[in-house]
Design goal:
It contains 3 helices and no strands. By secondary structure, it is mainly alpha-helical.
């Protein structure tokens, strides 16, 4: 349960960071804050993918693939 909550939280923070970078990129003074734009975009992407990686649904998908391989070997 903790992994799911942490994964959702990190994914949400990552999406917020990516949206912040997107909105800041469309601002009038976008040429002055390139470092801020890169920082928000990078941190947002890292948090988003870390959150997706922590979600427990991926374990079930991997186990299902392994189970189907075992069934094919038995036949």
């Amino acid at each position: 349960m903790e992994g799911k909550i942490l994964g959702i939280t990190l994914s949400s923070l990552g999406v917020l960071g990516l949206l912040l970078a997107l909105f800041y990129m469309n601002a009038a003074e976008s040429s002055k804050g390139v470092n801020f734009l890169l920082f928000c975009g990078f941190i947002g992407a890292v948090l988003f993918f870390a959150g997706i990686w922590l979600l427990p649904g991926k374990e079930g998908a991997g186990k299902a693939v392994e189970a189907s391989r075992v069934r094919q070997q038995v036949k």
